[in-house]
Design brief:
By secondary structure, this protein is α/β, with parallel strands linked by helices. Helix content is 45%, strand content 13%. The chain contains twelve helices and nine strands. The chain is elongated.
Length: 307
């Protein structure tokens, strides 16, 4: 009888040892007790820079966000943001998706601003429960900007006559080949004020009592370097991803980077997939103007922040 008891105990101990060995064979992120903080990088101009060269959009980042928040053993989700802004609609949709996932999974969101988290980039940063930055990071630019050109004099000089046919008295509003109409400008500014108010409300709801500056300072479209942004309550602290996560979750915290999907479809949307060289030939010289415009517009948006 004693031998049977001994055998049972030995068998039990063997099973426990087997479980430990199986645990040891699993990737570290799947082991019990391992702290994991998935990292999602959100970089670049937000929205369509040109119709054929989309920037950061909800459809482009949604899968990465879902994978990050669905990571096993995740203690939080870290977002690394480097964006000068862009589309207010895409910025707000990305913000909302982050907050929805955070609520569903009950995970805190830690944001780390790199060179710039400004305008729409700052709107996305507000999805974080905490915002960290570098002393030289640029944050803020809580405003709305729009621009165009006036070509009416140029086309006169080269002998071009503008012919435009519309149904609707304001359908040609702000046409760059027509003289500027003060009424059209007034209508545009009304729209901009509405969008600005939405942005302001989002920042106030997200940052709450942490905001220290007055409205006529915070919401003028001005931007600031890291330390000043912290003083105004736009960010919480100076800190980099590695140091902050190790201090909070231990030296062995795992920080898997959630990469965007790759393949033929992503190649068609601007990221060349392996074997997609033949698609590039279809662009030929016809794609050059679009590429040039895209590069110039992207450069202009970054240049607003001295970068």
């Amino acid at each position: 009888m004693s031998e049977q008891i001994s055998d049972r105990h030995g068998h039990s101990g063997g099973r426990s040892g087997l479980l430990e060995r199986v645990q040891g064979m699993l990737p570290a992120r799947f082991r019990r007790g391992t702290a994991v903080v998935p990292v999602v990088r959100l970089s670049g101009v937000i929205g369509a820079v040109t119709p054929l060269r989309p920037g950061m959009t909800l459809s482009g980042v949604a899968k990465m966000l879902e994978r990050a928040f669905g990571t096993r053993n995740a203690k939080a989700v870290a977002l690394v943001i480097n964006s000068p802004g862009g589309s207010p609609v895409q910025s707000r949709q990305i913000y909302l998706r982050i907050r929805q996932l955070a609520a569903e999974k009950k995970l805190p969101v830690l944001v780390f601003a790199e060179d710039v988290a400004a305008s729409g980039g700052y709107m996305i940063a507000c999805a974080g429960d905490e915002i960290y930055c570098d002393p030289s990071s640029i944050l803020g630019s809580i405003g709305v900007v729009g621009g165009s050109f006036g070509f009416q004099e140029a086309i006169k000089k080269i002998g071009v006559e503008r012919r435009l046919y519309t149904a609707g008295s304001h359908k040609a509003m702000l046409d760059p080949f027509l003289p500027e109409n003060p009424d059209d400008v007034a209508r545009l500014k009304t729209i901009q004020r509405e969008i600005h108010a939405t942005f302001i409300n989002l920042v106030k709801q997200s940052r709450g009592s942490r905001l220290k500056g007055a409205d006529d300072v915070l919401f003028t479209g001005e931007y600031w370097a890291g330390e000043t942004a912290i003083g105004l309550g736009l960010a919480d602290s100076i800190g980099d991803l590695r140091s902050v996560l190790r201090a909070r979750y231990g030296e062995k915290v795992l920080t898997p980077v959630i990469a965007p999907a790759s393949g033929l479809l992503s190649g068609l949307l601007g990221r060349r997939a392996p074997g997609a060289g033949s698609l590039a030939a279809l662009d030929g010289l016809a794609g050059l103007p679009d590429d040039l415009i895209s590069a110039l517009e992207t450069r202009a948006i970054w240049a607003r922040f001295g970068l």
